[in-house]
Amino acid sequence: MSTSAKMALLEGYVLVARALSAPARLMLLEQLAQQESGVEALAEKTGLTIANCSQHLQQLRRAALVTSRRDGKAMIYRLTDAKTIELMDLLRVVAERNLAQVDRILRDIWNGEDAPKPVSRAELAERLAEGSVIVLDVRPADEYAAAHIPNAVNTTLSDLDQLLPVLATDVDIVAYCRGPYCIYAHQAVAALRKQGFQAHHLEGGLPEWRAEGRDIQIGVT
Amino acid sequence: MSTSAKMALLEGYVLVARALSAPARLMLLEQLAQQESGVEALAEKTGLTIANCSQHLQQLRRAALVTSRRDGKAMIYRLTDAKTIELMDLLRVVAERNLAQVDRILRDIWNGEDAPKPVSRAELAERLAEGSVIVLDVRPADEYAAAHIPNAVNTTLSDLDQLLPVLATDVDIVAYCRGPYCIYAHQAVAALRKQGFQAHHLEGGLPEWRAEGRDIQIGVT
DNA sequence: CTATGATTCAATCAATCACTTGAATAATAG
DNA sequence: CTATTATTCAAGTGATTGATTGAATCATAG
């Protein structure tokens, strides 16, 4: 019992770790951290086939990281526990601290310079109230439509160039995307800074902003 | 670049998650959280063959969770970063919160009752100073010999029965082992409570106690 | 009750993993 | 230099994983 209980526990931990050890599943979890979703929506967002997506979701469910409920003929998945987001975040931190491979990719985004310090949510809220900042939402249009920070301008990385001419050069820009796993905001900030803009990225993403109960503009579902 | 950079980052995170997804490697990390060690010592502690242990260690090194240095003809491995311990701990918490399978094993240890609240390190230190507590070190003898909490009594689970008759029934007992991954202390406390003793387990284990700079009795190396 | 549509299951294949065995490397003792 | 000891490498085996395809399930609409 002594050793076997320990092994059984370890196998439980391993089940969770295994669930996090496929890029497809990390993408699914990132997406589910935004909002609960059906299989088809998740498949489209992640670029997986529906059957494959379904199987990854079931693997996540086996590890109890997600739960599902039926809504008509659709199955809706959601995160079981917000702790999972913390776990993914810590996974990211450990990887970024230790893995040269990851560090290099992040450096590439910033063209060798150090990443600028992120803007805290409290600071952004304050500056939003003053109106002394432009907020950029670098997520797909449908996610922007569902919910966004008030007065945020929606753009994608590829459309950013078109937006450049109309942006004021003397006002700070704060970009955000989905959250810590999402690098759209980083890439947008890097591109903006290259053009001479005063750009920063928001700490975390929309889910974190929302979780703090901050002001939000909700669209039609 | 946009998508491929993201995929490359995800693969980095996956590398770390994969490193945590084998029981053997979790055992190795738990052991390395105690102290840096050579391959042979680790193999013996974990019950792995030396070659197998070496390969797991290299997998951990590939994920940059451990680093190695040479000492004479021995390779000494140690944790790269204390954050890894946090990551393992959070992995444990998520698994225990969500996985019925894990919860059941823990319940089995406590015979269906809820686990008693652990004793904080501050509280134990205070009561040690008063002398109003018996401390039980439920780790293998060699680890006890290397370092232990002052005045702690060393025992193993199998030897616990022999110790029972000599223990005072009117004094609280606090048991500890390696840390959060180690369930010896839990099992010892459960056994003691079954016999009517006032037993609790220490929050964390010896590494945590040590990390706080608390009093410790160090043996010969 | 039958048809429809969303999701899951089942079967398959290539790739990877954990483990074992035996040989190869590297540092020290004699 | 040679023998010894600690560790790693290399090759092989069985088991598991991720992805694909097509069939099967299940709740609702008609």
The strand order across the widest sheet of chain A is 6-4-7-8
Oligomeric state of the chains present here: homodimer
CATH topology category name of the largest domain in chain A: Oxidized Rhodanese, domain 1
Low-confidence stretches of chain A: none
Helix content of chain A: 40-55%
Note the run of SSEs of chain A as H and E: HHEHHEEHHHEHEEHEHEHE
Largest interface: A-B, 55 and 55 residues
- Shape descriptor of chain A reads globular
Let me know the number of strands of chain A: 9
Our count of domains of chain A comes out at 2
Q: How far is the first residue's CA from the last residue's CA of chain A?
A: 52 Å
CATH-scheme architecture of the largest domain in chain A: 3-Layer(aba) Sandwich
Regarding CATH, which class of the largest domain in chain A?
Answer: Alpha Beta
Mean pLDDT of chain A, nearest integer? 91
Radius of gyration of chain A: 19 Å
Percent of residues in beta strands of chain A: 5-15%
* Helix vs. strand class of chain A: alpha/beta
Largest sheet of chain A: 4 strands, parallel
- CATH homology superfamily of the largest domain in chain A: Rhodanese-like domain
- Tally of separate helices of chain A: 11
Summarize the SSE layout with pairings.
2 copies of one chain form a homodimer.
Chain A: H1 2-19, H2 23-34, E1 37-38, H3 39-46, H4 50-62, E2 66-71, E3 74-79, H5 83-98, H6 100-109, H7 121-130, E4 133-137, H8 141-146, E5 147-148, E6 153-154, H9 160-163, E7 172-176, H10 184-194, E8 199-201, H11 206-211, E9 217-218
Helix pairs in contact in A: 3-4
The structure holds a DNA duplex (30 and 30 nucleotides).
